Predict the structure.
Amino acid sequence: MPDIYTPSWYEEVKEAMNESASRLTGVPDGSFVVAIEIGGDGMSPYVDISGLRRFLIKIDQGKCQWYREIANKEEETELSNGGVNFRFAGPATAFDEIAAGLLDPIDAALKGLVKVRGDMRFLMRHSEHVKALLDAYSRNVVTLWPQGMPPYGVAIQPQGQEASSNISTSEITNA
Amino acid sequence: MRNTYDAIIIGAGHNGLTLGSYLARSGLDVVVLERRHEEGGGLATEELTLPGFLHNVHANYHTFVDMAPPVKDLEVRSHGVTYVRPEVQMASVYDDGTALVIHTDLDKTCESIARFSEEDAQTFRRLYLEAHGYVDLLLGTLMYQPPMSVKELTKALASFGIEDRSEFLGVKLRRESINWFLDKHFTNSKVKAHLAFHAAVCGYVNDLPGLAIGFPLLVGKIDNWHLCVGGSHRLAHGLWRDLARNGGVMISDADVVRIVVDKGRAVGVRLSDGTELSARKLVASTVDIEQTFLEMVDEDSIPSELRNKIGSGLAHQKWSLFSVHLALSELPHYEASSFDPDVDRAWVVNLGYGSTGELDSDWEVIRKGLLPKFPRPNAAVNSLYDPTDAPEGCFTGLLRQFAPYSIHGEGPAGWDGLSNWYAKQCLNTWERFAPNINDNSILDWAPYSPADIPRKIKNMVDGDWMMGEVSLSNMLDQRPLPELGQYRTPIEGLYLAGSTQHPHGFITFGPAYNALQVIADDLELDKWWNEI
């Protein structure tokens, strides 16, 4: 069980997304890069109040090739080869809650908590694939919260993770 | 005048200028040709009554400010364009002396609605907040990208489980009318009438099936109505400045009579004075489909089937707008101000529609080519928020009444004998609700009928200020025809970028912005504007 926003956590997220994607047909051709920007909001202990954590995800033929944290815009430009295709940006609490399975990512977008930029037509045309990736991100990874999980300071477990210490990611994914 | 450009754009309305600016900023050598004496198209501001009174002849309401990407991308505000967002946006005054007021402050709006129905106020708050949450997504999905099909959209909404997540959005909206939506969610007839009236002013008729799909978006921007200080033409001038600053050229009094096609490709245009201009890369038309394909293009340049479809009649709005422009010495003081004083500060006021049934009856009459016997125009007083549009101590006024383009039995020419009389009927209605608007306070007035619309702006065929019906069968990739729904045409290098295209008329910038995406793909331009 990896800590939230650590390299081993990204790896688990990647595996969960790919496992989910492997069950789909008609995944989008080609590769694209997704940037995630998580802004400090004074509530999440994982992002400084005025800080910004940046992540990049490379998707190729529907599968996540890599998922990593980056330091700045320059690194984003370099790693994405100058072209981010989609950007999801929002406050840390929203992303923490999504990772904890407490906030549905589609609800977050509909409520404007997470802003989405990029070719919306592409996202709509590949809605099943997008939904599968988002579901995997938010539900299929067992996460540790070393500084507390949202709502911070309250000891609750996210949906589907009640017995997380005894269940592997693949078991949950297959449930 | 030079004779060769990379891009020739026909029509210097806001779409033509917007497309021209983007392309000029992309390094193309651009000319925008305008048949009239000035740029702007529907962004026309003229002294229709007395000197010093600036009247917006067509476009008055700018509801996509700060939502449409070009406003930021083209730095519109740096070119002398100033917008005001009136804090009291809109109101309805009713026959019983009551009034409903829409503010930029949601709490105040809900307080106003609650005077008619507490339940409706709560529903409106939920609807507004929900719509406000996804307005960016809807704009990005439905307005500012080349359109998807209804089928694709429906599939995506189903995949994302929108119906389970949203109280107000749903796949079934694509079959339903705004009346259906209002009846499903609201209870009070006056509240429903105001919301239906607001939709109609935006071009969305409340009784047409399928338009409910756009209603949440309309509510999401119900308080985003902006006024262009100094008149709407200032926006056209600002866009022209951006074009010029980036090396583009706008030529007025340049009447394009022919799009020159060589081996299936648009290679230039010919003007009415015989001048020929060559296009190295593209020609884009922002004028109506009829002019583009039936007048400007040789008969054998497009498939006969397409030509026949266009010739047999495109879908145009079955209604238009009758306007009365006024020079006033007083601001209107509504009797309903004793019920709600804020109505006197409302930029736009619906004079009397108190139920959706009253609107429905008028649509029925208008579709028959008749005039509603008791007009219920809407009244806008721009000077409330822009004192520069009239001499000191004076004010402009604008009455707009839903009306037919073609008078039954007489055609559009029938308006010539009716305009003054009908203007007085409209003025009588205003005086009934605001008794100080009378012969003493009206310094001058000028009617502007639906028949006058295409006389000034040829694009607006049949007085259709939306340049194509807003209806289920004429939206998204079906607008204006399935063959032309993606901004390309059967003629290589000829693009469509005017309000005939998705999304529709109004000052949306959408047709130009979306055509730009297609042109950029075809010419492999760097999409510098598309910063993700």
About this structure: Strands of chain A lie at 31-39, 52-60, 63-70, 86-91, 115-118. Residues 140 and 174 of chain A are 9 Å apart (CA to CA).
